[in-house]
Amino acid sequence: MRSPHYHRILTASLLVSASALLNAPAALADPDPQTDQPAPGPGVVAAVVAAPPLDAPPPDAAPSSAVPDACKQFGMALDHASSYYEDFAYDSAGGGNSVNYDDPNVANANVYGRTALRESAAAAMSAASAPGLPNDIAAPMRSWSLRATKLLIIMGIRGGGDSLNSTANDMNTDANNVQMACAMNGARA
Fold first, then answer.
1. Is residue 42, in this structure, part of any structural domain at all?
2. Hey, what's the signal peptide range on this chain (predicted)?
């Protein structure tokens, strides 16, 4: 059996929803009186020409530099993140799931590592968003960027070694996938 309080809340919610719908602006089909113009008369109808596919560059365009540029940017982000995270991993290693965040070396490496991960995640997401970049390269770049963000959050909330290691392993898999996709497209990450 439901309480009368439940019915009052339901009634209030329905009234608020109904009043919001009734006060919403309606789209009108009447023409604007200031722009009344006669309907166009019969004439020549232009033929519809199919546009070229968006993924293909025009035939006379220079080759796109999206792949090598994005792969290079991702490679630099990867190097930057790995060098600073490596310091944190080295300083915090050895305790299984426990990380001694009170150790000054760990605390210092934590700050630098999170900063590098934040910068690298932004650079990787920027590289993944390059116009003309194939999805087989962009998708693992985005995944790596999101996992880098996850790792810096884990570091920020002083997470355990198991979650740090698991996320870092997933990032390594994404980085390998990016490097392979870049190589398959003639670039290097």
1. no
2. 1-29
**Is residue 25 a part of any domain in this protein?**
no
Whether 53 is covered by a domain: the verdict is no
Give the separation between CA 62 and CA 84, rounded to whole angstroms: 38
Q: Give CB contacts under 8 A, 24+ apart, made by 90-93.
A: 92/161, 92/164, 93/161
Whole-angstrom distance, CA of residue 174 vs CA of residue 180: 10
Is residue 54 assigned to a domain? no
Domain count for the chain: 1
The sign of the dihedral angle between the CA atoms of 36, 37, 38, 43 is: negative
Q: For residue range 108-161, what is the model confidence (pLDDT) as tens digits?
A: 999 999 999 999 999 999 999 999 999 999 999 999 999 999 999 999 999 999
Fill in the DSSP letter of residue 27.
P
Q: What's this model's pTM, rounded to 2 decimal places?
A: 0.66
Please write down the HEC assignment for all residues of 29-68.
CCCCHHHCCCCCCCCCCCCCCCCCCCCCCCCCCCCCCHHH
Which residue ranges in the chain fall short of pLDDT 70? 1-64, 95
Q: Which range marks the domain in which residue 122 is found?
A: 65-185
How many residues does this entry show for the chain? 189
